[in-house]
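Same chain as my last thread, 182 residues:
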Amino acid sequence: MKQPDAPPERPSPSRTEPAEVAGRLRAVIQQLLPLLRGRSRHPDLTPSRTAALAALAAHGPLRISELAARMNIALSTTSRMVDLLDNCGWIARRPDPADQRASLISLNDDGLALLRAVRRETTGVLRERIARLAPDRQRLLHEALPALEELVEGEQPLPEGASPNSRRPRGTGEGRGGDGRA
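reply #2:
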């Protein structure tokens, strides 16, 4: 007598397919970002300007070309954005000691205060949402953080001439840690 074919193997409930996880994660991020951006009390601070301030807080001072590389945007776009940040009074420019023709861009006190305020606001929005979750869901979200952080580690391009070992360890530097990230 012929044996029936075994059913096709399905992933176990504990094993997830990367494509499914990627699609769901992308969808959640696309819904979270407008929620966070829509709450800002700073109309001049667009998402790209926030990202530039965050990059300067984490890696500055930088040349405009290094900022462009870190943000993965065109040099001309970055140059215009830096002019806008300067006009808003959020950054400082100073000559690069290695090349007096170039400038180094860094956050000034107003820019740092603004970035911290925005981070407190967005962290507060997320804190409220997370507090509404059941305790077991909060725990699962907390346990997922190392994996989510690992997704973005090493994705920022290095400045010209920098070695891979020159990166700051996670959790160090201004703006890192429990204050929320832009």
